[in-house]
Amino acid sequence: MFKFALAAAMSMMLMFEPAVAEAKSKSKHATAVKHVKVKRAAPARLVANDKRTVRRVAMVKGKRKIVYQQVRRAAPALAILTAGDMVGLNRTRDPLELRSSVAYVLDQTSSEVLFEKNSTVALPIASITKLMTGLLVVQAHQDLDEVLTITEAEVDRHKFTSSRLAVGTRMTRANMLHIALMSSENRAAAALGRNYPGGIEAFVAAMNAKARELGMNDTHYVDANGLSSQNVSSARDLAKLVVTAHQEPLLRQYTTDPNYVVQAGNRSLQYSNTNYLVALPDWNIGLQKTGFINEAGRCLVMQAMIQGRNVVMVFLDSKGKQSRTADAGRMRRWLEALKPVTIPATAAAGVPATVSAAAGAAAPVVQ
What we know:
By secondary structure, this protein is of the alpha+beta class. It contains eleven helices and 13 strands. The strands form five sheets. A five-stranded antiparallel beta sheet has the order 4-3-13-12-11, with helices on both faces. The N and C termini lie far apart (107 Å).
């Protein structure tokens, strides 16, 4: 009997042994899995490790050789919000589908408002600031032949922009003014302000005094070149500045020259206009200025003759490198097709009736 019971017990142990071993194996495996740490690649690494193979031709010992290299794809650029975006101006729609959040068009002769969108909102104006700088220099009747020197004071410590005018560069005031207006040269504009009677502080004070004199109540300046986002104005104010600046022959010439060579000491420097429209034969532009910093977006002010009519155009907070000039083209085509109307230029919500009559819809205005 005892032998039978012992045999039965041994038989049962043999039956359960594989199951116990399997269970131990599972338990051991589970314990091992429990302590495994899953490493997740950071998003930046995923972008950096995203590579592609490119085919290139290289010269090896004087012979052409095909080589294949792996290069990393560039990380996607982050969208930069302008001051206009932050207050929702980019959500304003208009009949012409402009890329500029702010637009204002004025008949220079009659002062009739032909088109406006968000025209009373004060925004950063970037290098449009230099138009006021030029106006002050010309109206102060400073000696244009006086040689000025670029100093450390003109080096941009705010935006860290570059310049072809090294510290120590000597140039006449006329040439400084020319490239500041035509090519938006920041150090030249800063030097003009510093060499004003009383220095840069007196110059900025004179800029703000001139703005008040012209009725530019939405405008404030803190520097001579527009690198600070604290230089602000509205489209309506800038139209007043353009009308005044257009009365100065030197400003008309300097802002519309397509190219110019200046003498900087013993060097000749070739500069080009930041607005390519001035070189096009189908445009008749009397004065212009461009501007750009991240906070302001792309900006443009112009005086032009369109269909025999002198008009002033202002575009602020435009998105895209060529969008401001493209908007100028859209506006020009719209003006060329515009039929004269006798309805007053002021309509409900501050929108000119000429816009409603020609486009069938009013351009919304943010007050």
